[in-house]
Design brief:
Elements lengths: L16 H4 L25 H11 L6 E5 L2 E4 H18 L7 E5 L4 H12 L3 E5 L5 H11 L3 E5 L3 H11 L4 E5 L3 H6 L16 E6 L9 E5 H15 L7 E4 L6 H13 L3 E3 L6 H11 L3 E4 L1 H7 L13 E4 L6 H11 L4 E5 L6 E4 L12 E2 L4 E5 L11 E7 L12 H4 E2 L2 E10 L5 E6 L3 E4 L2 E4 H9 L4 E11 L3 E10 L7 H14 L8 E4 L13 H11 L3
Parallel strand pairs: 1-10, 3-4, 3-5, 5-6, 9-10, 9-11, 11-12, 12-13, 24-25
Antiparallel strand pairs: 1-2, 7-8, 13-14, 14-15, 16-17, 17-19, 18-19, 19-20, 21-22, 23-24
Helix pairs in contact: 2-3, 2-4, 3-4, 5-6, 8-9
Length: 547
Amino acid sequence: MATLTPDGHVSAHLDGFARERLPLRESWPALRFELPELHYPPRLNCATELLDRRIEAGEGARIVLRTDAGDWSYAQLQGTVDRIAHVLVQDLGVVPGNRVLLRAPNNPLLAAAWLAVIKAGAIAVTTMPMLRSHELQQVARKARIEHALCDARLAAELRDAARATGLLGRILTFGDGQLEAAMARHEAPFAAVDTAQDDVCLLAFTSGTTGEPKATMHFHRDVLAMADVVGRHLLDTGPDDVYAGSPPLGFTFGLGALLVFPLRFGASAVLLEQPTPESLLAAVQRHRVTCLFTAPTMYRNLLPLRARFDLGSLRRAVSAGEALPKATSDAWFEATGLRLIDGIGATEMIHIFISARPEDVRPGATGKPLPGYEACVLGPDDQPLPRGSSGRLAVRGPTGCRYLDDPRQADYVVGGWNVTGDRYRVDEDGYFWFEARADDMIVSAGYNIAGPEVEHALAAHPAVREVAVVGAPDRERGRIVKAFVVVSAGVQAGPALARELQDFVKARIAPYKYPRSVEFLDQLPKTQTGKVQRYVLRQRVEEQGAA
């Protein structure tokens, strides 16, 4: 008897693990497919749509992946994908619905492996290359993973996780010749598994700002939807585009920007294994990159180096991962003449859902809902508030939150809306302005203070390279604003600078919001995707106790 997907299609999955652990349908967010390009056929394999369709269109000789070591054509990528798919099925015994862990820095073999997993009807679980054994154990246990393809340079931690969990029994490494030798035995084309549009193809783990990552479940149609909304409507991706950036492919921001969007529209991407400020700018110059993707902190770090490189090919630059400070946006515009495209996305939503095209950017605002999405702010009663109001950001569209077997589904989906945990203000023109993460609001002596507002004020001071603000316990005020600051090169940290920063903030925003405590650090704690782990800082201040 055929097993059906949530939408009533015949599932291709022989391993029903993911399908059986989808949240109940009534706990899903409301989904909207109003755009005609989001109407996908019932049978859909997104790897076929992204790669094989390009070959069928006669574009096999076009360049798709660019590296400093050499370029790959669409035909070369397809041949590699097909050989890896054969290895997965014939050598490792992967069947549709199995989860396959992928572990590598951004490089062509990782991209090919991701496509091969999808083409074989399995479920890709791409992990950040810097994850350690304990974190990999969490992933393996949550997703019950037996199969993995891993860069040999990163295999030690994965093998340790395998020993600790009793899972991951079938690991194949590459870069040391193991996978390559197996691939050499398979030359025939691989026929993609006939998956349904709502078969799960991707488990994306949240980046862990709370310390407890969750696995989000995305379908074949979701992968195409992020390209058909963000890649098409926000970025106008075309065949001549060259995309580059710092996010890893294990982060859905990077998966979209550096693989899915280029393939969907016949463009190409530059893959950098270790994207430093210097290597990122060098890649823009060497490969004539047209669109850059990275986080606000990286844009700030690029600015001092910008004059050393030719960035004349850049037409767009996208910032995501954290709220973009207006000071960083303005400084980038002054240095390059390009207005940064700010965007808010979420692993739960797979990619960006609020942003603005360059000509529509209002510095400081994130933007408006992208085509196919709608958004609002919710009040304490979980009802939408009118324009001009502040509240919890809520969004719905063609993608949405589906956690793998996790009770936190009920926290994220409220009344059919995806509620992201961000506080936003929506103005009379429909632009959304970030105020704080819900847990970044600091109540001090009865005043509500948004931590990011204080961060943005501090970030405008030339002595500040990076900053994070949290609430710290205080006997008199309940909580006070505490700033953790990483100073710019050549700047002397100390009490004198702390007082200068406090006075600087008082002059820029309401004085009661200034940081009553300033602590200097060599670096801020961050996730693998570059997000500041404020929960680590909160733990630090709680351990320090009330002042």
